[in-house]
Amino acid sequence: MVERKDQEWITFLEQSLNDLLSKDVLLFKNLKPSMLTEDAAIYLLTYTQGIEAEIPYYVGRTKNLRRRIYTNHLMGSTTNARLKKYLIADEAANLILDPATAKTHIRDFCGVRWINHNDTRIRGALEGYFTGVLFPKYGIAEEH
Asked: Domain containing 77: what range?
C-alpha cells in the first residue's frame, strides 16, 4: 500500500472540499441533462434558501454524474432516488408524501454542485470526508 504523508492528505481533502464549495450551485429548476457531465464525480445536493443559504441534504459519489443526478435523483423512482425516499420518510417534511411531491420539492428548492475524480477509492474517501464535515441532513445512517 502506498502511504501518503498525513499533511499532504489533509491538504488534499481540505482543498477538494474548498473546490466543491466554490462551485456555483446548479438549481434543479434550471437543470437540463446536457448541463451535467457524464464523468465520475462526488456531488452535494442542497436545499437552497434564497441566494444566501444552503442546507446540505445529501453527499454522494457516482461513475456518471448525469445519470445519477438527472435520471436517478430527479426523474427516478425511490429505489434509485434515495433523496426522494428520505424526504418521504422524514416526518418533519410532512407535505412530502409521495415521489411526485418529492420530485417537485427537489426541482423547486434544491441544487447540486460537484467535483470530478476518476479514482473510485478517492471518490469514496472524499464522499466520507465531505459527509463528515458538511453533515448532510439525509443519507448518513441509511447509507453507511
From this structure: 34-134
